[in-house]
Amino acid sequence: MQFTWTDEEEAFRADLRSFLETVDLGKPPKDKVGRKEWAQRWIATLFDAGYAGPGWPKEYGGMELPFRKQVIYQEELARRRVPATPGNGVGMAGPTIIKHGTQAQRDRFLRPMLRADEIWAQAFSEPGAGSDLPGLRTTAKREGDKYVINGQKVWNTAADISDWMFALVRTGAPDSRQHGISYLLIDKNQPGVEVRPLHDMTDNTVFTEIFFTDAVTSVDNLVGAENEGWKIARTTLGHERSAGALQQAQFYRRVVTELIELSKERGVLSDPILRHRMADFERRVRVMRISAMRMIARIADGGDPGPISSVSRLTNALFEQQLHELAFDLLGPEGVYDGADAVQHGRWAYGYLRTRGSTIGAGTAEIQRNTIAEQVLGLPFDPAMPPR
C-alpha cells in the first residue's frame, strides 16, 4: 500500500519532522525508573507542543488526525526512534475510557494519561485465568461508595512504575464467569496493593505480579455498569493488539534491513535457501505494514479495530519469533553469544529469548486463532469459551 501524498500532508510531515529533530532526547538511563522519567519528559514535550495522541479527540489533548496523517505521524516517530509512553494507558485504557467512560472519568484521567503525568498498568490475567480470563477470581465487593478488592494478578507490564491500573474484577457470584465481571480503575499507590517483579528469560523484570489485600477504589471509578465489564474489556483488548502496530511494522522494517546487511557482511547470503527465507521475511514485513494501516483506518472510521486486530497480533507474534530463529540460522553458533564481544552486542540472542513469549502475551496464539475462526471466518464457536 503506497500513497501519493498531498501538499498539505507533506507540509504536515515536514512540520512534524522539524519538531522531532529539534528535541534532544539524550541517551536513555540504564535504570528502570530513570528510563521511565526520561520517556515521561519526552512525552510531556510532545504533548505541550500539540503532537500527542494522533487519533485522540482534541478536547482531551489529542490531534484527531485523519487516517492518512496518522500514517505519516507513526512513520515519522518510528524514523526518529523516540520512546513510547511508558505503561499501557494511551494504547489501551485511554480508548476504553473515551468510548465507555463517564464524562467525569474522561475529564479526570485522559489528559494526565496522554501527557504521561500518570502511568497506567493493565491488571487482567491471573495465575488461573490467563487464556480463560472469564474464570478470574479477584473480587471487588461494594461497601457504600467504594469497592474493596482482594486477589492476585500476574504478567502485568510496568505495574511497578505505574500510578493507576485498569482491572477486571469479579463483582458477581463466583461461578458467574463473564456475566459477573466489572471494569475498575484503581490507584496503585495505596496500602493493600503490592507489586512484585518477575524475572523473564532475558533476566529483565518487564513483568510483575500484583496482590490486592483490601485495596479500595471509588464507585466513581467503575467503567460502564457493574457486571458488564467483559464487553468493555473487548475494546481494551482490541486496542492492545493494535496499539503501536504501525510503529512495530516500521521497527521490524528496520530490523529486517539490518539483518540483510549483516548477512551480506558475513557472506552467508550465498546460500539459496537462506536467501529464499530472507526474501520471505521481506514480503512479510511489507504485509505487516499494510495490516497496521488497515487497523488504523478501522479505528479512525469506527473507534474499534475489530477482529482484524487478532489477525495482526497472531502474524506479528509469529513473525517476531521466526525472524530471530532465522537470525540464529544465519549467524550460526556466534548468534547465541551475548555481551560486549558478541555479534552486535548479543542483540539477536536477546531478541530470541524476548520473543519466546510473543505468542503468549496480549492473548495467546490459540485465542487469536479462535477469534479469527469465529469472527472472521464464521466458524462455530469454541464451546469452552464465552460467546463474544
Blueprint of the fold:
Layout: H1 7-22, H2 32-48, H3 67-80, H4 89-100, H5 103-114, E1 120-123, E2 139-143, E3 146-157, E4 164-170, E5 181-187, E6 193-198, E7 207-218, E8 222-223, H6 229-242, H7 245-266, H8 272-302, H9 308-331, H10 347-354, H11 365-376
Parallel strand pairs: 1-4
Antiparallel strand pairs: 2-3, 3-7, 4-5, 5-8, 6-7
SSE order, as H and E? HHHHHEEEEEEEEHHHHHH
Distance between the termini: 31 Å
Question: What's the CATH class of the largest domain, please?
Answer: Mainly Alpha
Q: How many β strands by DSSP? A: 8
Write the CATH homologous superfamily of the largest domain: Butyryl-CoA Dehydrogenase, subunit A, domain 3
CATH topology of the largest domain: Butyryl-CoA Dehydrogenase, subunit A, domain 3
The structural domain count equals 3
Treating each run of at least 4 consecutive H or I residues as one helix, how many helices?
Answer: 11
Strand content: 5-15%
What overall form do the CA principal axes indicate?
Answer: globular
The SS-based structural class is: alpha+beta
Largest sheet: 4 strands, mixed
